[in-house]
């Protein structure tokens, strides 16, 4: 008899739980738990991790992959950038060139630019833009090995490979007064890359460290705060190409129905109460059997 009561309680609990869970929309369930690549950073709207989160949990153009080190990686025009930090409140992301970081992580004193791993940064302007306080670093390749004294300092922090396939490389900020003279001393490629933390006097304390540190980007996507404050999870409908607020009952345009959210909470409370009652009755029934 005691086993029959236990089985009956389990059956009732399963039925009640399924009825409550059945009310939760599958879009909401899929996007309700943030993911990570392994480095501890929470990845949520507008970003989403390929293979871990459905694309409808993020915004178009904000797909992230995970590298072998557990870092989130953002691809912009076929160039991978490691994401070091995402500020969801301020809508900026701190990134650095993945190839440069991987190739030079063993050597903290300088950076090897001779392999042309850095390319001109081309941003999808409808989604990302440089923060206003970023600087632009001009990289000049195949420069003369015998440089004038005032240009030698622009090699500080740059390693050169043994073959010197790109010749001597110089790095100057765009508004440096020596840029024109340096350009005349270099016959190779000219690459412009954004960087953070500008010293303000036309020189960097360590060019290698500044390049490896990366730069900051603002992003443009639908505002998620209203949806989240209403208890929803932000997402996107690729068919209509519109932002969606995924709620427990169904997707909505901007925010969830607070009244429906309260109904869901009440349903959960009812299930919890029912569980308590069933446990109590089972206990009483068992005690009655023992007494008899």
Automatic annotation (TrEMBL):
Source organism, top-level taxon: Eukaryota
Official protein name in the record: Uncharacterized protein
Organism: Pistacia integerrima
Lineage, broadest ranks: Eukaryota, Viridiplantae, Streptophyta, Embryophyta, Tracheophyta
């Amino acid at each position: 008899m005691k086993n029959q009561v236990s089985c009956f309680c389990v059956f009732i609990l399963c039925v009640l739980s399924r009825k409550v869970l059945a009310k939760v929309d599958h879009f909401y369930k899929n996007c309700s738990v943030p993911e990570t690549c392994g480095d501890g950073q929470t990845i949520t709207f507008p970003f989403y991790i390929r293979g871990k989160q459905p694309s409808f949990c993020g915004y178009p153009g904000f797909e992230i992959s995970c590298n072998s080190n557990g870092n989130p990686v953002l691809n912009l025009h076929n160039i991978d950038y490691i994401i070091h930090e995402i500020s969801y409140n301020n809508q900026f992301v701190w990134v650095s060139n993945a190839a440069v970081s991987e190739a030079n992580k063993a050597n903290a004193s300088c950076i090897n630019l001779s392999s042309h791993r850095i390319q001109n940064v081309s941003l999808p302007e409808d989604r990302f833009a440089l923060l206003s306080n970023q600087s632009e670093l001009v990289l000049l390749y195949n420069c003369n090995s015998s440089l004038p004294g005032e240009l030698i300092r622009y090699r500080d922090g740059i390693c050169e490979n043994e073959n010197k396939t790109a010749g001597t490389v110089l790095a100057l900020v765009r508004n440096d007064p020596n840029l024109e003279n340096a350009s005349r001393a270099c016959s190779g490629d000219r690459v412009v890359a954004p960087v953070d933390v500008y010293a303000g006097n036309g020189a960097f304390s360590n060019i290698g460290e500044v390049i490896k540190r990366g730069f900051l980007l603002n992003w443009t996507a639908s505002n998620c705060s209203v949806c989240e404050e209403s208890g929803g999870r932000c997402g996107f409908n690729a068919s209509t190409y519109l932002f969606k607020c995924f709620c427990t009952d169904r997707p909505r345009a901007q925010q969830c129905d607070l009244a429906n959210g309260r109904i869901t909470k009440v349903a959960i409370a009812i299930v919890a109460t029912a569980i308590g009652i069933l446990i109590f009755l089972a206990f009483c029934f068992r005690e009655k059997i023992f007494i008899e």
